[in-house]
Amino acid sequence: MISLNKAFYISIFSLFSLASVKAQNKVPFGVVKAEEGYAMVRVHKDDYRKIVDKIRMKTGDVFVYVKPAPGETEWIWIKYPEKDDTDKPFVRYDSITKEGMVNKNRIVFVDQLPKFTPSKSKNGKSLIFTDDTNPKIPGNQRTKVIIDIYPSYAHIKKQEKDAEGNIIKIDKQKTWGIGKELPEGMTEIKSIRVQQPGRGSVFVRDAIKNLFQPTMDFDNVGVTALDQDHIFLYMINGSGENRYVTFWSIKQGAAISQIIYKNPE
Predict the structure, then answer these.
(1) Half-sphere CA count of 253, side-chain side, radius 13 A
(2) Which of 92, 142, 250, 251 is the most exposed place for a label (fewest CB within 10 A)?
(3) So which residues are the signal peptide here (predicted)?
């Protein structure tokens, strides 16, 4: 029996399953375009489309898209994490444990949304994404997302390793993009900033902590928007067996959620 009081936040929506993403460089995803409400999560028609969950759907929520629902035309199969009822200003998900199919009419694919224009700072250490969709807006008033990438000082911080010798924590927090050793000349994300007229923010530290070897290749990073209040940033970072994917949802100028998972090449 499904509890009507239990709400779930849906994170990240990729056009490929987490397994098949391994062969991809791009990571398209999609978001809820409908008004706030609830949706029933079901299993395939071979089991009479039985309801297995009830999830809260808000404009701008992001899904992991696995595949078209078997034998269906109006349903898609998704994966999503569970969220408790406590509202938090920011939350990071590094696992996706629930799945089922939902009606696709509420979804818009992010690769169909307006993309921000990428550029680099003069010193080459920052990636800048600018909303150029409305040419009537002066350049200094356009929305920007700026990622600052600098050399890492992780080598002077306390490390924790697992039984196989992999570095799993630095400063007591999980690490991404590294294995048993810290690479020579390693970089990390130092800050991510959102600039909008009348509002903006710097991402909280928990949203960027220990994200090593971030990409500088615009083929592996992008920003897109549903509207001025709902902006999405994704990156494919690291390389080889240490590659990982991370997504952030930005609402009204501030990061509200992130999903991150390993994505070995």
Answers:
(1) 10
(2) 251
(3) 1-19
